[in-house]
Specification:
The protein is mainly alpha-helical. The chain is built from 21 helices and no strands.
Length: 345
């Protein structure tokens, strides 16, 4: 158990190749002989009152689907902390993609899903994520839930079937062509498809897996540089937003210049990916930049704390001891000081 606890902590804080190895290790433990020990460790860490990051831990818990865990995650969809809500969404989506839960069992849990959906329908962010979650469930479950929803699901950002002549697909094709120009072997027929899945596939699990695949390719820095450019320059807002979100998942030092500008932009769709990227890759984040959002609402402020915590910024000690700061900021800073910063090896 202590070894698995340490792995859960490292998985929560790991980036790049370290994330891939920790996730694979925890997935194997979760599906092996010690699956109950792994689940207990993941839930204990993720649901602790002062835990600052937990989405990936709830996600990997879903590597061994069961009706009981599906019910647990449905109950967490109404959790007040957004990171828990997001992790529960990803875990349910993961279980739905892996299978192993009968449609009868899943339909029996529809009332919990509907209750959660209806309770967050006035929150734009949660409504959008719950809408995507419902679309990722088996059709029979979707149909069972549809008549009980208090509000129609949000529209898909991009339709599942996209013509190669659409502006979105042309943006990906152009991105792929620019990247291939810098590769030793320019014939790369899979790159365009994987890029499209990483940026625009309606299923979170496919966007996530495609992003993980591209983290591991040897020309990731080249991809990251071109994606950051797309996020800045493309005329279509939906393409720019998808590129920003993908840049955050992909991560690299090549995106740091753009990330600093995004973090200071005042646009929440850019602030969060900017601060996440800085937390994952920067070595010395400017304190003024970290302070920029601390007096805003907590949902914006906590990402500055995330960037400081992941990068091990010295400002954490000052925040933890400053009684003029909010209790949530002081508690969060102490958590980071106790748990540690990002894991990269």
């Amino acid at each position: 158990a202590p070894v698995i606890d340490r792995l859960a902590s490292e998985l929560a804080r790991s980036v790049d190749a370290a994330y891939l190895t920790r996730y694979e290790a925890m997935a194997r433990l979760r599906t092996g002989r010690y699956h109950d020990v792994a689940l207990r460790s993941l839930l204990d860490f993720a649901l602790a009152d002062d835990a600052q990051i937990c989405s990936d831990l709830l996600d990997v818990a879903g590597e061994l689907p069961s009706a009981e865990l599906f019910e647990t995650m449905c109950l967490l969809l109404v959790h007040p902390r957004p990171v828990v809500f997001k992790g529960a969404c990803h875990s349910i989506g993961n279980m739905a993609a892996l299978g192993g839960i009968s449609k009868t069992e899943m339909r029996g849990l529809v009332p919990l899903l509907v209750r959660a959906y209806n309770s967050v329908s006035d929150d734009p962010d949660r409504h959008a994520q719950m809408s995507e979650l419902l679309r990722n469930l088996p059709p029979g479950v979707q149909n069972t839930a549809a008549t009980r929803l208090s509000r129609a699901p949000a529209a898909r950002p991009v339709e599942r079937v996209v013509s190669r002549n659409s502006p979105v697909y042309r943006a990906v094709a152009s991105l792929s062509a620019d990247i291939r120009q810098e590769l030793p072997a320019r014939d790369n027929p899979m790159l365009e498809r994987v890029l499209f899945e990483a940026m625009f596939d309606p299923m979170w699990t496919k966007r996530y897996i495609a992003s993980l695949f591209l983290i591991a390719v040897p020309y990731k820095e080249c991809i990251s540089r071109h994606v950051a450019r797309l996020a800045e320059d493309h005329p279509l807002r939906e393409v720019r937003r998808a590129a920003v979100a993908f840049s955050m998942r992909l991560g690299s030092r090549s995106a740091l210049t753009s990330a600093a500008a995004w973090a200071a932009s005042g646009d929440p769709a850019r602030e969060v990916p900017g601060l996440v990227t800085l937390g994952h890759w920067a070595t010395d984040i400017d304190r003024d930049l970290l302070e920029l959002n601390l007096h805003a609402d907590w949902e914006r402020a906590r990402w500055s704390l995330y960037a400081a915590g992941m990068s091990g910024n010295p400002v954490l000690k000052a925040w933890a001891e400053d009684t003029s700061r909010s209790s949530r900021l002081r508690t969060g800073a102490r958590w980071w000081l106790r748990v540690g910063s990002r894991v990269m090896d």
